[in-house]
């Protein structure tokens, strides 16, 4: 079952601007390696679940996988062949706001080669270009 | 701290702001700032190639040769990265004395292979990779080694248990912070989701109007109008077309 919030304050939400670069959640925080989005998108909960399954099937109970984004944005969509108007449509799916630089997944407890292959399997499922990254230099 | 303190050549930055900082970077420089010891902060630019080589080598204490002022000892306090975390775009330095006590982060290196890792499904978690300590500038270690060969499943090493290399060093990080832990990975069945509410198609809406008494038959505000939603367009389609103006 895809990720979605347990409770929300409002049922529907405006679309808002999405062409911004990530200023937070853009570094490997919990694991050793991560999958970083290079483009912005609304990534649906089902897509994140597909990525998680692809990644964990490869890992075979090794390591720990972290999902760094959560689909808490309701995306509404009008049914097909519907006239315009009559109010905002019902919620179609829940999406995570992903900006260029956002870390999508992280892996801990496995070798770099294993982590890379596992995360690249998840990257195939994502609607954005991604890259494999390690921890950044800290002071 | 290494025996020989590296020297950084710096120039004053006259024009400040993101646009001029970008010009400094394009010219092969690295914008930085020096502050502390009750003096006014000074905006400087460094040779990016040399400075980054020292940063990547783990250096923290530098001799700063600034044109028009005497040499000063500085401690690297913070690095700023671009949005992808690839390039260092700015550095912060604090003026220090070599015998002054400062707070700094030191990397933790885990040594050896834990015996608990031989068990199937066991993984080594290290949520804290660096700890903050207070020590003299001269005594800042490059890293702190932690031996984990005796670590078994469900055992952990906390920051308080890490042996600091110097006697006058003080741990600033929470002593209960987990430095290393062996945990058994739980198997997650395909299709099972831990965070989502099982069986709930829609989340609970906190601001939804609650139905008054006697209106119990009506669907809840948060519920998906499966029949109602489909009926609306059908009704709309049956309507005669509006006369064109």
Query: Can you name the CATH architecture of the domain at 33-73 and 92-134 in chain A?
Result: Alpha-Beta Complex
Average pLDDT reading of chain A: 92
Oligomer: heterodimer
Q: How many beta-strand segments of chain B?
A: 14
Structural class of chain B: mainly beta
Beta-strand portion of chain A reads 25-35%
Spatial strand arrangement across the major sheet of chain B: 1-3-2-6-5-4
Largest interface, counted by CB within 8 Å of the partner chain's CB: A-B, 46 and 54 residues
Percentage of residues in helical conformation of chain B: 10-25%
Helix-strand pattern of chain A = EEEHEEEEHE
Shape of chain B: extended
Task: Assign the CATH class of the domain at 33-73 and 92-134 in chain A.
Answer: Alpha Beta
CATH topology of the domain at 33-73 and 92-134 in chain A: Aldehyde Oxidoreductase, domain 3
Structural class of chain A: alpha+beta
The helical percent of chain A reads 10-25%
Strand content of chain B: 35-45%
Q: What are the segments of chain A in which pLDDT stays under 50 over at least 5 consecutive residues?
A: none
pLDDT < 50 runs, ≥5 residues of chain B: 217-245
Q: What is the helix tally of chain B? A: 3
Describe this structure in words.
The complex is a heterodimer of chains A (139) and B (245). Chain A is of the alpha+beta class and 139 residues long. Chain A has a domain of 84 residues: Ribosomal protein L16/L10 (Aldehyde Oxidoreductase, domain 3, Alpha-Beta Complex), CATH 3.90.1170.10. Chain A has 2 helices and 8 strands; from the N terminus they run βββαββββαβ. A 4-stranded antiparallel β-sheet of chain A has the order 4-7-2-8, covered by helices on one side. Chain A is elongated. The model of chain A has no long low-confidence stretch (mean pLDDT 92). Chain B is 13% helix and 36% strand. In chain B, the strands form 3 sheets. Chain B has a 6-stranded mixed barrel. The N and C termini of chain B lie far apart (83 Å). At the A-B interface, strand 1 and helix 1 of A face strand 5, strand 7, strand 8, strand 14 and helix 3 of B. Strand 1 of chain A pairs parallel with strand 14 of chain B, so a sheet runs across the interface.
